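== Polypeptide entry ==
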Amino acid sequence: MVWKKPDQQTRFHIDMVWWDESGLDFRLYLRDHLCDICRERYPDHRQTDAVDWINPETAEVLRTDALVQCLRTYCMDSSEFLSPKLPLITAVFRVFLANGNEPLSATELHEYIPWKTEGQILQLLSTPTAHLGVRPVFE
């Protein structure tokens, strides 16, 4: 793939292929982003099962990762989950964890991370290095 510099319309996501190829354990890193309640509930990132999740918009029942579901159910409601105290890439990563890894532009990410400008977010994500696997979605 040829690198193309992202712009304001470029959407980003967590590239799971990057995680597979990196040799890093995505689920271990995911567990580190859980709140204390969820970490206590899941003391080991390997000993979890898929759980049923009901899409609140469609009422469709889907099987999902228990760690992701716990994060989306409990952790993201905490004031500490997304805060100005976090490094920017951590905040971006958490937005994608919380939104089901739906692609977002720097403008859309700014709505979740208002203490940083769109330009700051785009600058971070506009390098060929995929921080935490966050990469542009080029169609």
